[in-house]
Automatic annotation (TrEMBL):
NAD(+) binds at residues 30, 35, 84, 119, 261, 325. Keywords: NAD, Oxidoreductase. This is UDP-glucose 6-dehydrogenase. Substrate binds at residues 202, 247-251, 255, 318. SUPFAM superfamilies: 6-phosphogluconate dehydrogenase C-terminal domain-like, NAD(P)-binding Rossmann-fold domains, UDP-glucose/GDP-mannose dehydrogenase C-terminal domain. Pfam families: UDPG_MGDP_dh, UDPG_MGDP_dh_C, UDPG_MGDP_dh_N. Gene3D superfamilies: Cytochrome c1, transmembrane anchor, C-terminal, NAD(P)-binding Rossmann-like Domain. It catalyses: UDP-alpha-D-glucose + 2 NAD(+) + H2O = UDP-alpha-D-glucuronate + 2 NADH + 3 H(+). GO terms for molecular function: NAD binding; UDP-glucose 6-dehydrogenase activity. GO terms for biological process: polysaccharide biosynthetic process; UDP-glucuronate biosynthetic process. It comes from Hespellia stercorisuis DSM 15480. Its EC number is 1.1.1.22. The keyword NAD applies.
């Protein structure tokens, strides 16, 4: 089928490449000229495991352009995967989605389905359909369908090719059938529902996961006080199929482009409708304070960070991605710098983006974990990269001036540090040494 995708971020590009891998002819549109130039050469502008390879293999089915008119005019299906960032008041900013909708309305010259993958508040697709109908130039049928995206960064390609489910929200049969054809070769349960339900599935799922994390983090904080070990506790909980054993890792809170904004957007939407969604509000509050957990713990060892060498292992919001949006490192590193610390950061893929977000000459970026640790007075682990998890813990002792390791992601078993002379404090577990 002839498909266009608006936006080539984590969702748009992965969607476009995966659709091309199933034989569809896909034109990916972005407003960012530099990005488009890079993609034209078969290079992915974002880091996502397996994406570059799949993109290179399917270049014959892929076109990259900023020329939206040529892309939208004769596409049978147009996916919208542009950002819906958070506004100051917590609501979703729909400017980019509406920009694309307007461009489609002005360009479409044949019947088509506009498929909204961007996460949008419940009711948005109804409004978008009316908006497009008001603005459209040609006398053609333009349907709007909701098809929320559930991929997780770090496993985006796998999550798309083997999706847990494909939710299709439509108000009539035809767009539903067209989307069934688009996804015919994707092995995943397909669920056809009403548009508003599809929009809600996305928020309800993401916010539930955020809630699960915040719940575990609160239990972890209590474990520290009462002397229990959260890893043992969650292991015991996970055997219950009603709870499940995934997404039960305690840590310094969730980040990324989705959970923080989607919890706030749902909370905003509830209050806009004179409702209160208290569980989600609580998840947000817990997460906001959890991000500072390690820095608070560090005060036990140092009154302030003046002239201290601080090693940071991992700065992305999770492993497997170069994305830093809402990463705990972004709020913690500035505090350390303000306090006079010498900050050294190691991350396998995130440092370029960190440099852009926090341009500070004083930060030293390291090529290896060893380099970050040399002479350090304290080490913070913000991301559970495999390199960190596999790191020989004895080296913390050998390389650091004072071996104090504060692990925000519970990368190691406690026994690894017993009798090592390394102080190891993690989340929801007793401190060793
Ligand atoms: P992103 O910021 O990585 O990418 C958005 C892209 O859209 C950018 O490249 C931008 O230049 C481009 N763009 C903006 N206006 C455009 C226009 N008029 N035409 C064409 N391109 C345009 O965003 P993302 O992380 O891929 O997220 C996109 C949407 O998907 C959001 O609503 C997000 O909530 C949702 N989502 C994201 C994830 C995720 O893990 N990132 C998962 C599920 C759902």
């Amino acid at each position: 089928m002839k498909i266009a995708v608006a936006g080539t971020g984590y969702v748009g590009l992965v969607t476009g490449v995966c659709l091309a891998s199933k034989g569809h002819d896909v034109t990916c549109v972005d407003i960012d000229e530099d990005k488009v130039q890079v993609m034209k050469q078969g290079i992915s502008p974002i880091y996502e495991p397996g994406l570059s390879e799949l993109m290179k293999e399917n270049m014959e089915h892929l076109t990259f352009t900023t020329d939206y008119v040529s892309a939208y005019k004769d596409a049978e299906v147009i996916f919208i995967g542009v950002g819906t960032p958070e506004k100051q008041d917590g609501s979703a900013n729909l400017t980019y989605v509406y920009q694309v909708a307007k461009q489609i309305a002005q360009s479409a010259k044949r019947d088509c389905v506009v498929v909204v993958k961007s996460t949008v508040p419940i009711g948005t697709n109804d409004k978008l359909e009316s908006y497009i109908h008001d603005k459209q130039k040609a006398d053609v049928n333009i349907y709007v369908a909701s098809n929320p995206e559930f991929l997780a960064q770090g496993t985006a390609v796998k999550d798309t090719l083997h999706a847990s489910r494909i939710v299709i929200g439509v108000e009539s049969e035809e767009p539903g059938e067209i989307l069934q054809r688009v996804y015919a070769d994707f092995e995943a349960p397909k669920l056809i529902v009403k548009r508003r339900s599809a929009e809600m599935v996305k928020y309800a799922s993401n916010d539930f996961l955020a809630l699960k994390i915040s719940y575990v983090n609160e239990i972890a904080n209590l474990c520290e006080t009462v002397g229990a070990d959260i890893t043992e506790v969650t292991k015991g909980m996970g055997y219950d199929a009603r709870i499940g054993d995934r997404f039960l890792n305690a840590g310094i809170g969730y980040g990324g482009s989705c959970f923080p904004k989607d919890t706030k957007a749902l909370s905003w939407l509830a209050s806009f409708n004179d409702k209160e969604i208290r569980t989600v509000k609580a998840a947000i509050e817990v997460n906001d304070s959890q991000k500072f957990k390690l820095i608070k713990k560090a005060k036990k060892y140092y009154e302030d960070f003046l002239f201290l060498n601080v090693a940071i292992l991992g700065c992305t919001f999770k492993p497997g991605t170069d994305d830093l949006r809402e990463a705990p490192s972004l709020v913690n590193v500035p505090l350390l710098l303000e306090d006079g610390a010498h900050v050294r950061i190691w991350d396998p893929v995130g440092t370029d983006n960190f440099r852009k977000k926090i341009p500070n000459q004083k930060i030293q970026y390291c090529e290896s974990i060893d380099e970050a640790l040399v002479d350090a007075d304290i080490c913070f682990i913000f991301t559970e990269w495999d390199d960190v998890k596999k790191y020989d813990v004895q080296k913390y002792k050998q390389l650091m001036k004072t071996p104090i390791v504060l692990d925000g992601r519970n990368c190691y078993g406690l026994d690894a540090f017993e009798n090592t002379g390394i102080t190891y404090a993690s989340v929801g577990r007793p401190t060793v040494n």
